[in-house]
Design brief:
heterodimer, A: about 525 residues, alpha+beta, Alpha-Beta Plaits, 3 domains, 18 helices, B: about 180 residues, OB fold (Dihydrolipoamide Acetyltransferase, E2P), 7-stranded antiparallel sheet, 3-stranded antiparallel sheet, GCV_H/Fam206 (chain B), Single_hybrid_motif (chain B), Protein Abitram (chain B), cell projection (chain B), actin monomer binding (chain B)
Chain lengths: ~525, ~180
């Protein structure tokens, strides 16, 4: 039985004749029983109204020339007729309803959104097709602004009727189209996608349905003339008739003025409102770890100039590929606690990194599965290796970035000297502590960095003699120190530099990062 | 023995300049004989203006009396200030824009020119304090200025410049011209 009462009758009659669909009628009668809307055959709902008040006879078309088409077999109709319990209503007979079986008139208020339910069907289809892993979903519906105008018109249409009967119908009591749509969606989701899926207010999985109806866009335009201060001109080409602006204008406009400019009830549209493509978006998942780089010809990010790839692969691609496919994500953002050059290796514990995985279709991974994924990455290439792979929160990204600015790093450089050296010549370097450098922006990065002088500290150094023109230099430095420029001087723009200290031309042949002293992410025990 | 070893390693180790820069030249700048400039172009398009080894300042044991970046009443290259990644505020130079004037102790005066179009990023202030740097290390610590050409022009600026081979050609022509009896 429908939760409709005798008092709703005048509203129902008025709205039916105005051209409202069954579910919109339920809304205007403030029916908040969700199940009522989920009854999928609109015809069934309408039949039930008419049944209650014996208006079934009104199924006859006003226009005699139009032939009645009936989807119900004659004997079923007869059954319904015999189950009429209430007395025939004469008022009902007067309200000529042009509704026929299988009538596909588009509702004047919801423009068909609550009628054919292709929006919900499409949404459910999209979720299924995407093969997402989820427990809950939040439904975000975007409706064309003219729905507010049409709703307002219908409300005014019944307001008079309601007042005459001594009743009150607040506009706020009317169930919103959006809400009804979501209730229907909940039912469909539960039915089609299994019992665990629940439509909630907040969820990491968002399904967005957008409706547009260009045919009736002009319905809003009169408001610009009547309430000009509600509509601010927009800079880009987007319509000035936003939902918010239209709602505001409708709140302000006096009833009389509205009725002058807009038909009440609204005009019947010829086409139904169609949903745009449904968007499914799962909130990003963050994966962190530490990476080692063993190759001296691997850039961190893909090296592409003028559309041509200059170097094969990159650190981020090698790490991201297996992770992307495991999480079935659409894309990723890779960032790390600092970077090293193409020709520099990263040894030791490795450099912390974090990846944001965009729209991951699969997001639940156990510790075991993460270990397995780590193993897959390590097997895939001998150029890089990852450790401590784990899922982290978005906030963790900032912890990693603070490491870039604040934490110390250790390096080993292979130095060439122009003048021949002996062990004693370089031993003094081991005693240098906290050497402050003034480094102008190196010329090799000056094209993309601001010109500035940066003070950086080399905390300590140690040397290992190799031969008369080579030695290994170990350094522990402040974050952001340019090692190469310290060694060769960068045209004298880094002071002091190794050339000055050793009083000879020096150059750097090889550089390795020995450690990045950031204690994040937390180590994952083997 | 030692000097041979020294030569070997010097030859084996490509310098920073060899690895990252291309050498371009402008000979007889503004028609003045032998006033050759060497432009070091980095692979990222930034150019360092230096004196070529053949420049008169570097010949005959000259010493420098003073270096002046004030090239006119209204313009000092020292006042050049760039800000931000896009280097706003840098003085825009054309090929023949003077960078500085160098006076040697033998009263000879030379103007060093930009040689390329672009935005002046910095001039070398170290040579103001230590002019010897210019004499001893003209290609590195004794550089004159750093210029950033426009992105669109980064390839075209070298059209008016000589590459290493062309420059060496010119030099050898000079010495053969000199050795011919006039």
């Amino acid at each position: 039985m429908l939760p409709l009462k005798e008092k709703d009758k005048p509203i129902i009659q008025k709205l039916l004749s105005a051209g409202c669909c069954a579910r919109c009628i339920l809304r205007f009668c403030c029916v908040s029983v969700q199940a009522a809307y989920r009854n999928y055959k609109e015809k069934k709902i309408v039949n039930t109204y008419l049944l209650i008040w014996g208006m079934y006879a009104l199924y006859k078309s006003k226009d005699a020339a139009e032939s009645e088409t009936s989807e119900d077999p004659p004997n079923k109709r007869a059954k319904l007729e015999t189950s009429i319990t209430d007395a025939q209503s004469e008022e009902g007979a007067a309200a000529v309803v042009k509704l026929k079986d299988g009538d596909s008139r588009v509702c004047v208020v919801c423009l068909g959104i609550l009628q054919e339910l292709c929006g919900t069907t499409q949404a459910v289809k999209a979720v299924k097709a995407g093969n997402y892993e989820f427990d809950t979903l939040v439904l975000s519906v975007s409706l064309p602004a003219q729905l507010c105008v049409r709703e307002h018109s219908c409300w005014l249409h019944v307001k008079k009727e309601v007042r005459e009967k001594g009743l009150v119908l607040n506009k706020d009591d009317v169930i919103q189209v959006k809400e009804a749509f979501k209730w229907i969606m909940q039912g469909m989701v539960a039915k089609e996608l299994g019992g665990t899926a629940v439509v909630t207010k907040v969820s990491p999985f968002e399904v967005s349905v957008e409706f547009t109806h260009s045919e009736t866009d002009a319905d809003c335009h009169f408001l610009a003339a009547t309430c000009p201060d509600c509509f601010k001109p927009t800079k880009n080409k987007q319509s000035v008739f936003t939902r918010m602006a239209v709602v505001k204008a409708l709140e302000k406009i006096p009833d009389g003025k509205f009725l002058k400019h807009y038909p009440c009830p609204p005009k019947q549209p010829t086409s139904s409102c169609s949903p745009q493509e449904v968007q499914c978006l799962r909130v990003s998942v963050f994966v962190a770890g530490r990476y080692n780089k063993f190759c001296r010809s691997l850039p961190q990010t893909p090296w592409v100039i003028d559309g041509e790839r200059r170097m094969e692969s990159s650190v981020e691609e090698l790490i991201a590929a297996p992770i992307l496919s495991a999480f079935r994500a659409d894309g990723f953002n890779f960032s790390s606690s600092g970077r090293e050059d193409v020709d520099v290796r990263t040894l030791g514990n490795g450099r912390p990194f974090a990846m944001e995985l965009l729209n991951p279709h699969k997001s639940r991974f156990s510790k075991e599965q993460m270990k397995q994924l780590q193993e897959t990455i390590n097997q895939s290439s001998d150029k890089i290796k990852v450790r401590d792979l784990q899922i982290v929160t978005r906030e963790a990204m900032s912890r990693m970035k603070e490491g870039e600015e604040e934490k110390t790093k250790s390096y080993t450089a292979l130095v060439w000297t122009q003048k021949p050296i002996q062990r004693e010549d370089i031993s003094f370097i081991d005693d240098i502590k906290d050497l402050t450098l003034d480094q102008k922006t190196p010329l090799r990065v000056l094209h993309r960095r601001a010109l500035a002088v940066r003070q950086r500290a080399i905390h300590s150094m140690s040397t290992r003699f190799l031969d008369s023109h080579h030695f290994y230099l170990r350094l522990k430095t402040q974050a952001g120190t340019y090692i190469k420029e310290f060694v060769h001087g960068d045209f004298g723009r880094t002071n002091p530099n190794l050339c000055q200290l050793l009083k000879t031309n020096t150059d750097i042949l090889e550089l390795d990062v020995e450690s990045v002293d950031v204690d994040w992410p937390p180590p994952v025990p083997e | 023995m030692e000097s041979v070893e020294h030569e070997d390693t010097k030859a084996n180790a490509p310098s920073v300049i060899d690895r990252y820069y291309t050498r371009w030249y402008r000979a007889d700048m503004k028609g003045k004989p032998c006033e050759d400039h060497c432009i070091l172009q980095h692979s990222n398009r930034i150019c360092v203006i230096t004196l070529a080894e053949t420049h008169p300042i570097l010949q005959n044991g000259r010493t420098i009396k003073c270096i002046n970046y004030q090239i006119s009443n209204g313009c000092s290259r020292l006042k050049n200030k760039v800000s931000g990644k896009s280097k706003r505020g840098g003085q825009f130079l054309t090929d023949f824009a003077p960078l500085c004037r160098i006076t040697c102790t033998d009263e000879t005066e030379y103007t060093i020119y930009s040689c390329i179009r672009g935005r002046l990023l910095e001039v070398n202030e170290n040579i103001l304090e230590t002019p010897n740097l210019l004499l001893e290390k003209p290609s590195t610590e004794g550089y004159i200025a750093v210029i950033l050409p426009k992105f669109e022009e980064s390839k075209s600026i070298t059209e008016n410049l000589l590459n290493r081979d062309e420059f060496e050609n010119i030099i050898s022509k000079r010495s053969s011209a000199q050795s011919q009896p006039s």
